[in-house]
Amino acid sequence: MIKIYKQTKDQFHLMKDWVMKHPKESYKYVMILLLVSFAFSFIQYFFFTPKIAKSLVIPEMYSKSDKIKADLDQKDQKTEIIIKELEEYKIKRENAPLTKTDSLRIEYLFKQYQNLKNGH
Fold this sequence. Notes:
mainly alpha; 2 domains; about 80% helix; elongated
């Protein structure tokens, strides 16, 4: 066991010395190895694609639930109301400058819209 350890240690030191004496060649070999492994990973991904679902599928029970449908409809209605109000502020901005309360209301509506879209 000790003999194998010493042989391995000596081989490691020889390789280390060679790398120190020939940095350009060692760099070349390392880059070739890196490119080959990179190409191999691309080939593996494209020809042997992982078995991962690419889209989010909502389970049947969840999507057909009346409560969930009602919640989604309510969310859609709230977003439509917010969008309409934001469009009104856009028209108002084109006609005249907005007041500070308008700006605050727009920020509030935008945050509400983001919360509804992101589900937070």
